[in-house]
């Protein structure tokens, strides 16, 4: 018997959407818990330990973003994926910078399953991790065993997705990495709309955190991609 790939807490107040999400995720062997409100979600999360939370931003008794922050504060290893309205993707992603991914409505259910799978693949560590050598570039130091980051000896708090992005840039040294490669290797996206701003958004998050501790370290080759100075 194969084990479930993970447990997902689905928080969505529209029953029809919640049902479709739960059915699709269970079909792909995920364990699924469903809540229709902030209160129900907090109660479920307290009793169980989901690996990921799929959160609608608009909930009847609160804001999904505030719920995500509360869940992440209690469970730093919890992967967060938000369901958002298709109004202004760049602004929405900017507001959800502490999450690991976002999906706009209306969505393709296969894409939702693929995104959850990809997020868990990069955020959930193996049960037993071997000791790994430190990754270094300039004054950056990444510990592959503890998933911690330091710059010039000072700790940098990153989300799992920010860590995965920085790790890929460090592993590629001073080379410029095309945006398409970042989407494929960090987000595991095979087909992404050309207007997607997820890479640009997470690069801005990294810059804000890293540049606070030293000179700018991430370079941009306009129209191509990103690298380390």
Helix content: 25-40%
Q: What is the H-and-E element order?
A: EHEHEEEHEHEHEEEEHEHHEE
Q: Calculate the mean pLDDT score and round it.
A: 84
Question: Which blocks of ≥5 consecutive residues have pLDDT under 50?
Answer: none
Structural class category:
alpha/beta
Number of helices: 8
Q: How do the strands of the widest beta sheet line up side by side?
A: 2-1-3-6-7
Estimated radius of gyration: 18 Å
DSSP E strands, number: 14
Biggest beta sheet summary:
5 strands, parallel
Instruction: Please state the overall shape, judged from the principal axes of the Cα atoms.
Output: globular
Distance between the termini: 48 Å
Strand content: 15-25%
InterPro entries: CheY-like_superfamily, OmpR/PhoB-type_DNA-bd, Sig_transdc_resp-reg_receiver, WalR-like, WH-like_DNA-bd_sf
Protein name: Response regulator transcription factor
Domain OmpR/PhoB-type: 132-229
Modified residues (4-aspartylphosphate): 56
Question: Secondary-structure blueprint of this entry?
Answer:
Layout: E1 7-11, H1 15-27, E2 31-35, H2 38-47, E3 52-56, E4 58-59, E5 62-63, H3 64-74, E6 79-85, H4 89-95, E7 101-105, H5 109-123, E8 135-137, E9 140-143, E10 148-151, E11 154-156, H6 160-171, E12 177-178, H7 179-185, H8 198-210, E13 218-221, E14 225-228
Parallel strand pairs: 1-2, 1-3, 3-6, 6-7
Antiparallel strand pairs: 4-5, 8-9, 9-10, 10-11, 12-14, 13-14
Protein name: Response regulator transcription factor
Keywords: DNA-binding, Phosphoprotein
Domain OmpR/PhoB-type: 132-229
């Amino acid at each position: 018997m194969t084990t479930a790939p993970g447990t997902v807490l689905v928080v969505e107040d529209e029953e029809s959407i919640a049902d479709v999400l739960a059915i699709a995720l269970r079909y792909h062997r995920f364990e699924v818990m469903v809540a229709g409100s902030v209160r129900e979600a907090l109660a479920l999360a307290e009793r169980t330990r989901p690996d990921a939370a799929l959160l609608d931003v608009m909930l009847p008794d609160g804001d999904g973003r505030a719920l995500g922050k509360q869940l992440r504060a209690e469970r730093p290893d919890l992967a967060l994926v938000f369901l958002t309205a298709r109004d202004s993707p760049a602004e929405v992603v900017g507001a959800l910078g502490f999450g690991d991914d976002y999906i706009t409505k209306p969505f393709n259910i296969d894409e939702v399953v693929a995104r959850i799978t990809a997020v868990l693949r990069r955020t959930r560590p193996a049960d037993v991790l071997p000791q790994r050598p430190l990754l270094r570039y300039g004054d950056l130091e990444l510990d592959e065993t503890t998933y911690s980051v330091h710059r010039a000896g000072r700790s940098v708090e990153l989300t799992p997705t920010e860590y995965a992005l920085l790790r890929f840039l460090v592993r590629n040294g001073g080379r410029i990495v095309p945006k398409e490669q970042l989407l494929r290797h960090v987000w595991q996206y095979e087909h992404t709309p050309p207007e997607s701003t997820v890479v640009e958004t997470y690069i801005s998050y990294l810059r804000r955190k890293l540049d606070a501790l030293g000179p700018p370290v991430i370079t941009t080759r306009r129209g191509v991609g990103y690298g380390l100075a």
